[in-house]
Structure formats: C-alpha cells, structure tokens
Specification:
two-stranded parallel sheet
Amino acid sequence: MAQRISRAKAKIKASDEPFTLPPPDQRPERLRLVLHVLYLLFNEGYASSSGPDLARTDLSSEAIRLARGIYAAAGEDPEIAGLLALMLLTDARRPARSGPDGELIPLAEQDRTLWDRPLIVEGLGLVTKALRQGQVGEYQLQAAIAALHDQAARHADTDWSEILSLYGLLEAMTGNPMVRLNRAVAAAMAQGPDAGLALLDGLGERLGDHHRLHSVRAHLLEQAGDRESAIAEFRAAAARTTNLREQQYLNMKAARLASPRRQEAR
C-alpha cells in the first residue's frame, strides 16, 4: 500500500495537475466517488474481510470522522446525510456484535441494551431529515433499513415486511447482487424460508462462489428444516471466508446442526 501511495504521488507530481477543487460540473460525480470510498472503508472496518479480528474500529471510526467532516461542509446533500446516518446506525450495534472472547454474535442474538442509543438517535435524525428532501438515494435507503433494525426492541419486533420493501427499491435502484442477497434474508423473515431461497436462484452467476451466498443459503435451509443441506452450506461458507471469527462461527453452526445426528448414531 505504501508503494502504491508513493507511485500515485509521483504520477500526480509528473502530471502538473493543480491541487484545486473540481469545477462545478464535475463535483457531483467526484462527490459520489468519495462517498463510495468512505462506504467501503466503513464496511471493511465494521466487518473485516480477512484477518483474526471481526472488526477494525480504526477504519470504521476514520470513515465516520471523514463523513462528519463532509456533512459539516455540505450537509444539505441528502446522500451525504444518508451515508453518515447509515454509518452511525450500524456502528451503534458494534458493542453487542462480539462476545468477551471476540466471537461473532449474530443480530438475532445480540443484547440490544448494549447498543449505543445516542448514535441511534443521531442517525435517526439524519436519515429522517434526508428523506424529507424527497431525493432518495441508495445510502438513504440503506440507512432507513438500518433504522428499522435499530428501532426494534427485540429481533422478533423487526418490521421485516417494510425492510423487504426497502430492499426491493434498493435493488431496483442499484442492481447490486449483494442487495439481492440481503433481500432474500428479509423475504425469508417476512414470508418464510422458501421465499428467500427462491431469490437466491441464479445469484451464484453474479456473485460467484462467495462465502456470504453459501452462508445465507445455509441459514435459510436451516429455517426450512433441511439440516443436511444446511450443514454442507455452512461448511462451504466457512471454507471460503478469510475472516477467522466468521469462520469459527460458521463451523460452529455446522457442528451444532450435525451433533444431533451423531447422538442418534450412538
């Protein structure tokens, strides 16, 4: 990474491009790119794609700091507010996302009393104000979904039908296969596992052999009562993730599903 930065600096110096703000007609596209980078930075910090730790708070905290700075400078843009709201509403759950030994605790099992309420209140205010402007974008929709999760006192109280509708809008807006994956989870919670599994059909052609696709399919197969297929999918997901904590969680799920069969064999 240091070498890449050095090469980039040398390239900029050689180009003689002035270090100035872009002209007005270029600013929307440049801002879109900056917001996307901050979104990726936050996601990598909140859920590390590799390594021994579930999260890297240095990255997620820096993404929030930079997003706050951009919002302070150009807060009237609803997508800037939406992105900051999404970060805050998501980061609010971080204290409950891992156990005392760093193990992953899924959303359904988290102690919601540990969630950061001031962050939730701030995030709700931001996304509410942004949506009232009537210029809905993808970050606002994601923040609205995060808000529905954060407003549920219990996992059972989550408004999954509304979340499913929002994911439908988000997928239509972005065409992102990861959104389809999340929509499948919401569909399973709102309409049953078969509805979720139907949305996964053909998704492998777009996502490839991604561990999250195997993981979601495993959870939905478990809900549907297909234990053997769920075990196989949990194991496939564990073999493909490069984050140690996720791998441990997925292997644990497979082992727990397999243990009744072992007991019956005895």
